[in-house]
Design a protein that fits this description.
The chain has 299 residues and is of the alpha+beta class. It has nine helices and eight strands. A hairpin with a 2-residue loop joins β5 and β6 (160-169). The radius of gyration is 28 Å and the shape is elongated.
């Protein structure tokens, strides 16, 4: 039976930060699967490529500060002995989990959340981000010997600490699906340095008057261009028919017949199979593509 591989590295240390940048972690999972409301797979890819700036806020800092206290409260409340560890999947070494807690005797994982009061009250009522469930399932994928993962919410209010918890069981079909999605993302995008497609979360919303004005102008001009292109193609074909397969000139225009060589299909050249052509590419340049949003993308 496969078991997780425990790594001797301190969570939050430079070595840990470098390690998690080269692996797929629990916080990446929901975004990679397109299930996150807050992060896209493209954002995850930027993180792995070192192209995004580290993000931190007061809520994240508060969560880190309260985590040891929350873990101790959890252990005393439910009789566990969960301790933080960092683990890699034995079957898929690119899968990593920085666990808030692991009790080897009870085979139970612990995922701690220390939100503000509003989010905590929602969690008490069973309302919380689906991202959290996917995080727990990713950790269960990394740790096949675990029987469950306790999603634990801790709040320290004026009347003392409060907590609520939910055990996320092993849903093997979901674990298989998320592992498959993560594998494609890791092998096709991260290892190949290929940028994944952008999703709705990767676009900045623009609703100003100037943006609306020029958007409407562009759409109207585009329609006119498309209509003119249809008309130009018809007139062009009429001239080609009149030329009777000969180059012609007159009335201020000339029509030239010439033979253009076909494009080279490099993929079919045996000598180039397996050859890395990236060294022969020109430097990348920024480009812009303007298009209309399909109605299905805005629903």
């Amino acid at each position: 039976m496969a078991v997780m591989k425990i790594i001797d590295v301190q969570q939050g240390s430079p070595a840990w930060l470098e390690l998690r940048r080269s692996k797929i972690t629990a916080t990446d999972c929901a975004a990679i699967m397109g299930k996150s409301k807050y992060k896209s797979s493209h954002m995850v890819w930027l993180d792995k490529m070192g192209k995004s700036k580290p993000f931190d806020n007061d809520a994240m800092k508060r969560g880190r500060e309260l985590e040891p206290e929350a873990r101790e409260y959890f252990n005393q409340k439910l009789g566990f002995n969960c301790q933080p560890i960092v683990a890699l999947s034995d079957e898929n070494p690119w899968q990593m989990a920085s666990l808030d807690g692991w009790d080897a005797n009870e085979k139970m994982l612990l995922e701690i959340k220390c939100p503000g009061e509003s989010v905590f009250r929602d969690a008490q009522a069973g309302q919380f981000s689906a991202d959290y469930i996917w995080q727990c399932l990713h950790q269960l994928a990394v740790c096949p010997e675990a029987i469950g993962n306790c999603l634990y919410f801790y709040f320290e209010g004026s009347n003392g600490p409060e907590s609520t918890e939910l055990v996320v069981d092993r849903h093997e079909s979901d674990i298989v699906a998320l592992t498959a999605s993560e594998s494609v993302f890791y092998h096709d995008y991260v290892l190949q340095f290929v940028e994944p497609p952008l999703g709705p979360l990767d676009y900045q919303e623009q609703n100003g008057n100037d943006w609306r004005y020029y958007s409407n102008q562009w759409r109207e001009i585009k329609k006119q261009i498309e209509a003119l292109e249809v008309e130009e193609k018809y007139v062009r074909n009429q001239l080609i028919d009149l030329a009777d397969d000969q180059s012609c000139r007159g009335a201020g225009i000339q029509l030239t017949k010439y033979t253009r060589q076909g494009n080279v299909e490099y993929a079919k050249i045996p000598e180039l199979r397996g050859v890395d052509l990236s060294a022969y590419r020109k430097p990348p340049i920024d480009a812009w593509r303007l298009s209309e949003i399909e109605s299905s993308q805005t629903d």
